[in-house]
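Tutorial, part two.
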Amino acid sequence: MSVVSSRVSSVSSILKAPGVRSQLIRQSNRVYFKLPKNLKNIIYNFENGSVTKDYEDLICVLRDSNIKDTDLIEFLGNVRQCISLLTPVHKLFVETLLQLKWTNRSSEVASAYKTFIEDLICMQIHYAKNVIDNLVEQFKPEDNDEVKWEAGECKEEDVQRLNHLHDILRKILIVVPMSSKLLLQSLRGRFPYIAHGTHMHEVYVYALLQVLEYAPQLRSDILSLIINRLMVLDVNIPRLETDNEDEDLMDDSSECDSTTGNENNVVDDNDITETDKIHPIAHKLDVCMELILKYMHDFCFVEEVLQVEPLKSLYFDLLQIFETVILPTHASQYVQYIVFYICSFKTAVAEAFIDWLWRKVTDPNIPPIIRRSSVAYIASFLVTANFVTTGIVKVVQFKLCKWIHDYINMQDHSSYINNENKDHTVFYSVCQALFLIICKRHNDYPDSKKYMLYLQELNLAKIITSKLNPLKACHPEILHSFAEITRMYQLAYCYTIIENNTRSQLPIFNSNKAALTTVDNFFPFSSYTLQRSSQRLISLFRDNVSNSNEYKTFTNYKEDIDYMTE
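Running the prediction step on this input gives:
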């Protein structure tokens, strides 16, 4: 090893933080340059074409050199006196000024720079896009992804930088109201790509949510932007290839292994951090979901007291985003819990959301794929949320059954029924949703005799024995659970139909019969495995609370829906 390399290694060992070492090196090699005071003459000479070297040298100094705070403050004051001269010809000079690093300087420099930007926007409006683009670009941190916010708390340098940037943007929106469109375009165009680090995503989303504090008119657009980009992260997270039963088996086997000894284990779980156990894209989504869930709570609650009007306005914004972004996306895993979370704030919101989904299901003008997804959301919502009362469940079950019976009656009066189940996919999806709700919520009723009488009114036997044969398209897990429950309550006998369906689907040689396709077993609120953001949701799942929900009358259910749709 050479003397130089050994000396560097010894210094780096003493200065454990590499940032301190690099900072000392920069300070030792720093050379300061004086800025000219005759700026007006330099601009005039450049426009006349007589002397351009001074103008070019000035741009190079501003771009590449170190400038003292006092000199920069004085120079910005000279620039303000010449703003009327900064026509589009001086675009390069203005862009160089916009790229100055000023947010980490003294408060005097920051104040002078903000004043310069305000004067520039007021007198030279054509630079508005350049200014806004540059400010938004500075939302992103310069450090790499190794830097993390401890326990979700912002770093001081990030807070200081963002506060300066928001101060300018707030004033720009006041001075130039039409700049809102430019701001939205810039926010969309500079959103971090999926390949960017977690810290950049976290700081940028945090900055976007801060914009909503002084630009509430942009809330719907900015929330739509955030959720849209979070959905991109969501669909790129690999799904677990094992189902719940396989996971249970794995848990059992791991317990057996732990009892036999740990001699062959090389890696200690204590040496692995929580972030190392999850997919990197999932970690990005996790920190962003925590930010948006926290924003929703802080927006709707003041000192833990629910504010009804903010809740209604935020709900309708999120409902529109849900319709355009979340609902059409197939098999998303986590982003849909944003709507789940706001529904937990008030029962009326949950009821209105279910009613909105049901109108989607029953509208024949909506594409079948959206209708099937809507009923899947209804079923999953009812069987997952502990804030959905048994009274709401009974109302939804009754609606599902009535629609199914009406559909069966319509088909019975028809002279022809298509044998291919794909023409009745919405019907089969509604039936499966009903079967799932009965399977998951039948234990919630303390009076089993009264509940059995209620189930008898649903006439489940007519549904399963209809010519459409909904059991043939039901997912096997739901099918067998439903068959067991109907047998227990003596409501219907499904096993004979199941056996006949199994025999009819046996492969036949040289047969053109199409293979049976079951309804997708997609239930969007089935599991939430993100670590940080799950702390706000885990208490809302039925598995973690008792099932003793209070009854709610049909009249109250209708009144709450009318309240949310006013």
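Residues 71 and 477 are 74 Å apart (CA to CA). In part three we will examine how such features are distributed along the chain.
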